[in-house]
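Researcher: Here's a chain I'd like modeled. Treat it as a single chain, no partners, no ligands.
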Amino acid sequence: MEQQQHPIGLYLKVWLLLFVLSALSYMVDLFHLHGYLRWTLILLLMMAKAGLIVAVFMHLRWERAALMYAILAPPACLLVLAWLMWMESDYTFLTRMEYFR
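Model: Modeled as a single isolated chain. Structure tokens:
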């Protein structure tokens, strides 16, 4: 039985892209960015790196769509729920500031 192997060039390109994304993450701190911009950039770069690692090095890119959805849907739902909780916390904080002065 023959095993399928992916070209080494693909892994080298992904490694280089991971290096560039890591350098960009470092530059966020180097340029002293603050607030939501900093955290948005850090989280986006972190998710991009994690996605590349999962897709290429864990071979999820070459799996069937059903398996990809089974693995990727729960974290996506958690992100949506976390975003909803964040929105709710802002509303709760503003309501308390308004009525409990």
